[in-house]
Design brief:
Number of helices of chain B: 9
Helix content of chain A: 10-25%
Structural class of chain B: alpha/beta
CATH topology of chain B: TIM Barrel
Number of domains of chain A: 2
Strand order of the largest sheet of chain B: 3-4-7-8-9-10-15-16
Radius of gyration of chain A: 17 Å
Number of domains of chain B: 1
Strand content of chain B: 15-25%
CATH class of the largest domain in chain A: Alpha Beta
Largest sheet of chain B: 8 strands, parallel, barrel
Number of helices of chain A: 5
Number of strands of chain B: 16
CATH superfamily of chain B: Aldolase class I
Helix content of chain B: 25-40%
Shape of chain B: globular
CATH architecture of the largest domain in chain A: 3-Layer(aba) Sandwich
CATH superfamily of the largest domain in chain A: Nucleotide-binding domain of ferredoxin-NADP reductase (FNR) module
Structural class of chain A: alpha/beta
Oligomer: heterodimer
Order of helices and strands of chain B: EEEEEEHEHEHHEHEEEEEHEHEHH
Strand content of chain A: 25-35%
Strand order of the largest sheet of chain A: 10-9-8-7-11-12-15
Order of helices and strands of chain A: EEEEEHEEHEHEEEHEEEEH
Distance between the termini of chain B: 24 Å
CATH architecture of chain B: Alpha-Beta Barrel
């Protein structure tokens, strides 16, 4: 069930220049949360920002009843969120959207930039099922791959940077771990990366889920602003996604 | 407890707070957050004769204290509304109204007629003011004769409460309001969105796929209050006010300007429970000001 809840920021961590993470707790119990679901964060005290900002859920710690968000400072909304401090309150509408299926016995998770965020909780959900996913993280340069140690503890983890500052030089699709007979692929990141991964999966007949990041207003399927063109017509990314089976997105893949 | 109940034509609202079409889905989207039965009414999304895909993405741009949208009436069509959605929502203990849209007089009439047969829908809001469709929509709402023609035609096939939603994108909203009153409207609601535009200067491109779109949110409220006040003084039929309402104080502005009810729109995106907070806020206001009946302050300006 979706809810509107005030959380307290119990930990704020700066991760390089452009990323930070917020660990949040509220007095009650967290509802069931699927990997790939997101929250709509209220941005307070801003003359410029009216709407909430959709942020994917980075991690859920059911033992401590906390959830964390990994945020890249990219625009006026996230810049305001970057000013928040430990002890501050953050109002969330959550958990929203349809997450990953956590399917396959030998899955590959491919993340790029801020799209790495939902993959940590996804990797943990696989581990819960006794499956060790392979993880590929990509970015232009090392500083744009914000977290990787936690992934390394879960499964084989490779990094690809365009400048070679971390891991193999090149794109994730050129990485030596990319094409090793996986039976399921999950990806989140920049659109060109997700399309390249999606086309590869489709060509190889591997089931593939992509997590889209369209601009949203409501986050709950009411305003119809965030649609993507699927094989069944326009669908709300906030409600029918953000995670889609790439087989439904042939139009999106071909643009 | 003060009486918050008001009347629109022969429709009794348990309180004057309705939800604006296109901002509240079919109500179901908000059922996790509020008790829908607390609302004065729900105006469900714009419904047309056939299913529509709407405009291409991007359809939304945030602007100072507001947002532009260019959804373009994406909806499942009246047939699917009647057969799939209506059975799911008809038992809700509130007034469910359908926003009726179209590209031709014939289409408006066809949709209105289909909705007329639904027992649990006591009213329609005729949308002659959508700025985001190429044909019809605002075209009908910007000319008094055209507006009167649509309303006349729909009046002949629709027998329950007929609300007509007006566009602010005109020189004289009063002239349009008088024309639709004359043509048989039972009520008018205003304002629909203001035609606007935003440009992404970094990409040197319009923010919306359609270049222009409809502006809503707190930034439009003073324009909306002014228009509601003008229309309320010019027509005999009840006026429903909307445009940028976020708080009970905002709603009270519209009521004092002459609106018998209000619609809450964009604010639902920011706080899905805002409607119930506004209703509670109206009670608090009445208590603070020793008002027994909300109708006592309607139109006092």
């Amino acid at each position: 069930m979706k809810q509107i809840t005030d959380f307290t920021i119990i930990r704020r961590q700066q991760l390089g220049e452009s990323y930070f993470s917020l660990t949040l707790r509220h007095p009650g119990l967290l509802p069931p949360i699927a990997a790939g679901q997101f929250v709509e964060v209220e941005v307070c005290n801003s003359r410029e920002v009216l709407l909430r900002r959709p942020i994917s859920i980075h991690d859920v710690d059911s033992q401590n009843q906390t959830l964390s968000l990994l945020i890249q400072t990219v625009g006026k909304g996230t810049r305001r969120l970057a000013d928040l401090r430990e002890g501050d309150t953050l109002n969330l509408v959550y958990p929203l959207g349809r997450g990953f299926a956590v399917a396959g016995a030998n899955p590959l998770l491919v993340g790029g930039g801020a799209g790495i965020a939902p993959l940590l909780y996804l990797a943990k959900c696989y581990r819960e099922k006794g499956i060790r996913p392979t993880i590929l993280l990509g970015g232009r340069t090392e500083a744009l791959i914000p977290v990787r140690e936690e992934f390394e503890a879960i499964g084989a983890t490779g990094c690809a940077t365009e400048d070679g500052s971390l891991g193999e030089k090149g794109l994730v699709t050129q990485h030596s771990l990319f094409n090793l007979g996986y039976d399921h692929i999950c990806t989140c990141g920049p659109t060109p990366m997700m399309k390249a991964v999606g086309r590869h999966a489709l060509a190889k007949g591997i089931p593939c889920e992509v997590s889209l990041e369209n601009m949203m207003a409501c986050g709950i399927g009411a305003c119809l602003c965030c649609v993507t063109d699927t094989d069944q017509g326009h669908k709300c990314v906030c409600k029918e996604g953000p995670v889609f089976d790439v087989a439904r997105l042939t139009k999106w893949l071909s643009i | 407890m003060a009486n918050l109940s008001t009347r629109i034509h022969n429709l009794t609202l348990k309180n004057p707070v309705l939800t604006a079409s296109g901002t509240f889905g079919y109500g179901e989207e908000f059922a996790d957050f509020i008790d829908l039965a607390q609302l004065g009414g729900i105006i469900v999304k714009g419904t047309t004769g056939e299913k529509r895909q709407g405009n291409p993405y991007p359809r939304m741009a945030e602007t100072p204290a507001g947002m532009l949208n260019a959804v373009g009436l994406q909806n499942i069509g009246v047939e699917a509304f009647c057969s799939e959605v209506y059975p799911r929502i008809k038992e809700l203990d509130t007034n469910i109204m359908v926003n009726v849209s179209g590209s031709s007089i014939e289409e408006y009439c066809r949709v209105a007629e289909a909705i007329d047969s639904l027992e649990r829908i006591p009213a329609i809001e005729l949308n002659i003011s959508c700025p985001n469709v190429k044909k019809g929509g605002m075209g009908f709402g910007t000319n008094p004769d055209m507006a009167a023609q649509v309303v006349n035609a729909v009046r002949r096939v629709y027998h329950k409460t007929l609300i007509v939603k007006l566009t602010p994108n005109v020189t004289s909203v009063v002239d349009i309001a008088k024309a639709v009153e004359q043509a048989g409207a039972d009520s008018v609601s205003l304002i629909n969105t203001l035609l606007g535009m935003a440009i992404d200067v970094e990409r040197q491109r319009p923010c919306l796929s359609t270049i222009t779109g409809g502006l809503s949110g707190p930034c439009v409220k003073p324009v909306a209050v002014r228009m509601v006040w003008q229309v309320a003084h010019a027509v005999q039929i009840p006026v429903i006010g909307l445009g940028g309402i976020t708080t009970a104080a905002d709603a009270l502005e519209f009521l004092m300007a002459g609106a018998k009810a209000v619609e809450v729109g964009t604010a639902n995106f920011i706080d899905p429970a805002v409607t119930v907070k506004i209703i509670d806020g109206l009670q608090d206001y009445c208590l603070r000001h020793h008002i027994d009946d909300i109708n006592d302050i309607i139109g006092i300006i």
